[in-house]
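so the lab meeting is tmrw and i was supposed to have these ready like two days ago... anyway. pasting both below. for each one the top line is the aa sequence and the line under it is the C-alpha cells. i havent really looked at them closely yet so no promises
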Amino acid sequence: RQRALHVLEAGLAAELHDALLTLRTEWPRLAQELELGRLSPQPGLPEELREQLQALLSPAVARAAEIRDQCAHGFEGIALRLWPRLEVVVVRTMRGTERLYCDSLRQADCRGLPFYCPFYQAAGALLGVNLWPAEPVPRFVLCPDWAFCEFLPCLASKEPRTVLLDELWEGREYGLVVTAQPGEYRCRTGEVLKVTGFHKQCPVVEPVRRESQTLSVRGESIPEEQFCQSLCRTLSLWPGARLIDYVCVESSLLGDSSGPCAPHYEVFLELQGLRDLSEVQRYKLDQCLQEDFPIYKSFRFKGSIGPLRLHLVRPRSFTRLREALGSPMPMPRVLREEQLLQLIQGAVIS
C-alpha cells in the first residue's frame, strides 16, 4: 500500500527473496485486493457520504493500477519501480552461503539497491555491529561488553583451548563459544568466524561457515562455503545457467535407496536458464570438487567415495522446503532430516 517506503527490511534475505518471488505470480490478486474497497452503487447510501468514502479509497485504487502497470513490464528492478524512494535493503542475517539470496536479489528484483546487515547475532545474543554499510560482504566489530565470547582456534595442532578477544590473530579462523543467556554457559554456537582486522583494539570478524553444514562421508570434511565456491565455479561452465538454490545430502541419509554404491554426495539444484544437464555437464561438479579438494580426489580415485549425483528440481521447490522448516532460520545446506529429504526428492524433475 505504501509507495513512500525508504527501507525494505527482513530477518533473512531468503524471506525477502520468497516474498518477491510470490509477487511474480500473485500480483494480479494483490492488485485486486488493494482495490476491493472501491464502492459499487449501493441503494440507500447518501451520495455525499458515498463520495467521501470514495475519496478515502481512491489512493488504493491508484496504487493497484500502478502495481498492475509495473508488474506487467517484468520484474527486473521491481523494488525500485514499486517503491521509488527506497534507499536500502536491511537484513538481520547475511552469513556465508546466505549471500546467495542477496546476490540473486541484487541481480534482479532489487537491482540498484545496497544491502546492509547492521548486527551480528548468535546463540540469541547480540555480539557485534557492522560499521561498513557500503561494503558488499558484512564485517562486524565484536563489542566486548555485549556478551562473554571465547574462541576455539580452527587449525590447532592438538586439543585446542579457548582464547579471548585480546588473543585473536588477524587472518585466522575460530569457532565461537558464547555465554550470554541465563542458564546457558559456554555454548558452542557452531559458527566459524574469520578475523579480518581490528577496529581500534576490537577484533573485526566475518562469519564464514557453520560447522554442522560440513560434508563428510569418509572424514574428508568439505565446509559449506568452499563447496558453494566449487558449485559456483561449475556453474560458469554451464552457459546460460543461473543458480537459484541448492542443498546437499550425504548418501547415508538415503538408506537402502542409495543402492550398493560407495558413500557419496547427492546435490539438488534449482536452476534458471537450463532445462536439463547432460551427463558430461553433471560430472563437472564432481570434477571441480576433486580439483579443489585433494582429499576428496584421493578418496574418489581409490573408490571409497562414489561419484556425486546431481538432481534438478522444479521452480519454487526451495520456497516450500523453507516453509517446511517452520520458523525462519538460515537455510541448511546439508540436510540431516528424512522428512526434508523426501520433500526435495519429490520435486526432482531431472
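ok protien two:
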Amino acid sequence: KMAMGDAAGRYRSTMSKSKDPSGLLISVIRTLSTSDDVEDRETEKGRLEEAYEKCDRDLDELIVQHYTELTTAIRTYQSITERITNSRNKIKQVKENLLSCKMLLHCKRDELRKLWIEGIEHKHVLNLLDEIENIKQVPQKLEQCMASKHYLNATDMLVSAVDSLEGPLLQVEGLSDLRLELHSKKMNMHLVLIDELHRHLYIKSTNRVGQRNKEKGRISSLVKDASPVPLMDVTNLSTPRKFLETSQFSTPGSSSMRETSLLEIKEDTELDPEENSNVFMGILIKGLAKLKKIPETVKAIQDRLEQELKQIVKRSTTQVADNGYQRGENLSQENQPR
C-alpha cells in the first residue's frame, strides 16, 4: 500500500509539474528503459496500473458528487458549440451574400453610369434642339427689332445666333442657309448703325435747333413783334461732345462719366428709342462695339465729316432763307415793309 501510494504520489507530482499529458508517458518510458530487471519492470507496471485505477475511482467519485454540475456544464458546452457552429454557418452565408451583393452592385454601378451618361447626352441634345428652335425665330425677331429701331437687342440677338451657328451648331447641315443669311446680316449690320449714328449726329441735332427757331418765329409773329429774328442759340444744345465732356465733373479716382454711361446704357423696348438722342447714340456705339466695328465706324465718320458739315451749312442756309422770306411775307401783309 505504501509503494502504491508512493507511485500514485509520484505520478501526481509528475502530472502537476507537467501540464502536458505526454510528460507522464515520457516519464514512464524513461523509468522502464533504465530498469535492467524484468521484475522491476513488472513492479513499475503494477504501480502504474494501480495509479490509473486510483485515478479512475477518484474520477468516478467526483463525477457522482458533481453529476448535476457536470451535466449542466456538458449541456451548456453543447449549446455553446451549437451556437458557434450556427454562427459560423451564418457568417459564411453572410459573406457569400455580401460577395453576391458586391457583384450585383458593380453591375448596377455600370448600368447607372451608362444611364447617367445617356441622360447627359439627351439633355445636351434637348438644349441644342431648343437653341435651334430659338435661332430659327431670329430672322423674324431681328426684322421686328430693326423696324422698331431697337438696335442693341437686335445686335445682341444676331451676334449670339451667329456665334452658336458657327460654334456648337456648326455641324448641323440643315442650318447652312440660315447660317449664311445671319452671317451676311452681321457683316452689313454696322452700316445701318453708322447711318443712324450720322443721322443723329448731323441731321437730328440741327433739326432740333431749326424747330426751336421756328417755334420762336411763330411766337413772335403771334405777338406781332417787329424786331428782327433772334439768332439761333446753340449754347444750351445737348450735343454728343457735351455728353462726353461731362466726364470732367467726375471725382478723382472714380471712373469717368463717359465710361460709366456707355457701360450702363440699356435699351428699353417699351419706350421710343430715339426719344433721347444721347442715349440712342450710346446704344449705337455699344452695338458697334459688340459687332467689333469701331475702327470702321471711326473711319466712316472721318470720311463723311466734310460732306456732312457742308450739308449742315446748306440746310441751315435754306432754313434761314425760308424763315426770312416767311417773315417778310408776314410783314408785307401787315403793310410794314422793311
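from a quick look at the 2nd one: The two ends are 179 Å apart (CA to CA). Confidence is low (pLDDT under 50) at residues 1-5, 219-260. will dig more after coffe
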